[in-house]
Specification:
Layout: E1 4-7, H1 14-26, H2 28-31, E2 47-52, H3 62-73, H4 76-81, E3 84-90, H5 96-102, E4 105-111, E5 121-125, H6 127-135, H7 146-155, E6 162-168, H8 181-202
Parallel strand pairs: 1-5, 2-3, 2-4, 4-6
Antiparallel strand pairs: 5-6
């Protein structure tokens, strides 16, 4: 039976912030960068739900499959009321830094090594997300890591204060255009967890 665990650790991924601080001191190009304060940015997209992964590697693409589930099962009225945007981030790249930086709130769905049974789900929010990403073991070869992308957003002072990652334990990373049965059954649960979190953040 799939379990859902919500983790919000009061810890910082300290080395990310150290890198950001040192980069600001040592990189002359950043000194003239026109960074707009987060609170003054347009809020046309309140919450971005971003799915990442390679859909050709079975469970590694679970984040992309989750976005497809949301597109098929969340009606336009609910999407409008919660001010949601569903984004297929694929195998991720630095181009996503702009999307994440522009979002008021970001929820990421991805395959993750949780040291649990296939299909298990954990939700990491805020600093708990930073800590998890700083320690997580990469499951597949993305263009760049999610941690790299978030570090760029942090350098620009645009990291959303309300952020979360929903990790799903994979069963297989072999070639395949569909997730395994165990992981496929967890997709609705993970998506509903994302929707519940987005709704909670708006209250």
């Amino acid at each position: 039976m799939n379990g859902l665990t919500i983790i919000n650790k009061p810890l910082l991924c300290e080395w990310i912030f150290d890198i950001a601080f040192l980069a600001k001191l040592t990189t002359p190009l950043l000194k003239g960068l026109p960074v707009q304060p987060k609170s003054h940015m347009p809020s046309s997209i309140s919450t971005v739900i971003l799915g990442i992964g390679n859909p050709l590697l079975s469970d590694e693409g679970v984040g992309v499959h989750a976005i497809r589930w949301l597109d098929s099962n969340v009606d336009a009225n609910q999407k409008r009321l919660l001010n949601l945007d569903f984004v297929d981030g694929g195998t991720i790249g630095f181009a996503l830094s702009g999307l994440i930086g522009d979002a008021d709130q970001i929820i990421i769905i991805d395959a993750a090594e949780l040291h649990s049974e296939p299909g298990a789900i954990q939700v990491f929010t805020g600093e708990g997300m930073d800590h998890f990403l700083g320690q997580r073991q990469s499951l597949a070869v993305h263009e760049v890591s999610l941690l790299d992308v978030l570090s760029v957003v942090l350098l620009e002072d645009r990291l959303p204060s309300k952020r979360a990652i929903i990790g799903i334990q994979p069963a297989s990373l072999e070639w395949g255009e569909a997730p395994t049965e165990q992981v496929a059954k967890s997709i609705p649960e993970a998506c509903n967890a994302a929707l519940a979190l987005a709704k909670e953040w708006l209250q």
